[in-house]
Amino acid sequence: MAQNAPLNQKRKFSWPLFLSPFISRLGDALYIFGLNWFIVKATGTASILGVVQGIGGLVLVAADVLAGPLVDSVNRKRVMLWSDIISFVACLLMALIVDVNHPIFYQLVLLTAILDIGLGFNFPAAKAMVPELIQDSALQRFNAISNTSLSLADIFAPLLGGALLAVSWINFREFLLINAFSFLLSIALLLGIRYRYQPSKSGRLSIWTSLQDGFKYVMGKPVLVKMVVIDSVVNIFYAAFNLLLPYDVKHYFGGNEHLYSYLMAVMAIGGMLGGLSLVRARSARALPQIERDIYLLAVVMLIAGFWRPYPVLLAMTGLYGFLISRIGVGLFTLVQNVTDVAYLGRVFGIWFISVDFMHPLGNFIFGFVIDWLGDGTFVLMGILLALCLGLTDLVFRKHTTV
């Protein structure tokens, strides 16, 4: 791995870089909680929710195309700042104009798309900054703690969301205002990061040329290609799982919003425990270890599909969060370890192009499949996930040395 520019002093930990994503994630998770619940409760189906999030996801893919070259050619801290500023303004304006009793479809699509654009630029910039500011030996620990904090935000969001839903005068507008405030706090934290940008010695390339260079770099490292494929597959079923939970609560458990909030909280607790399980690991996880967790994820989906009782669904949701967290930490750390710093923005941008394309695809497809199969969709998801990973291993059999 190439050496980082000496302008930035590396540390074992960075509080602003740790807290900023946590604060904005808390607001986003609360917004998604409200969006999911209000739409499914109003319509009784998952298809409209799938369309809203699917369109936003396609916009996110378009943002990913521009994000990689931009992150590698301009100040990464400024990319994060402007992403949060735009997201803050969008949430604030939507809170002022939205009809909380009859939200307009295109307004929900527009806001979700804007937030996804902000995410499309913010996340690659944040991940690319980590190796510039954090010591190599502390990368997995920082990634694990950071992912744990995101899971902690996911714990607070459904609990807070459930409490808000119980207050009669609180509606969707309050969810938007809280999200706007979270972006404002994130901006303040980002301003506290000590980061100096060093322009590339090769000069600024055009977006197209830079993207071509990035694709060439990724294709020259088959292990990167394999990890992109694996994460893309996992994200198809991640999208489906999150659509299926509110549907199950609505149709099988009496539409109790508290039961839905418990599921989301348990998933987040599982994610937090998954991240904590890697904090003290002495070395980065190998790819075969990550793949074993994905096969276990498929087993979790099968169990959730064969046994419908709520306690079973609750337990499987917690295990799901645990495994998803471990998979995410492991893959991000491997990417950071095998990629030159000068290419990190483009590699993560290309990574998210693939992953984020699969996420809306999962929303579009499974939004309708869920209406057809109900919670039997869990079984289909488990079988397909295992088959897809097995096929990926077969194709990349010669490239398993990470």
Automatic annotation (TrEMBL):
SUPFAM superfamilies: MFS general substrate transporter (SSF103473)
Source species, domain of life: Bacteria
Keywords: Cell membrane, Membrane, Transmembrane, Transmembrane helix, Transport
Pfam family, one: MFS_1
Domain Major facilitator superfamily (MFS) profile: 1-197
Record-annotated membrane-spanning stretches: 17-40, 46-67, 79-98, 104-123, 144-170, 176-195, 223-247, 259-281, 293-310, 316-335, 347-370, 376-396
Subcellular location(s) of the protein: Cell membrane
Membrane topology type: Multi-pass membrane protein
Name of the protein in its database record: MFS transporter
Species, as recorded: Furfurilactobacillus milii
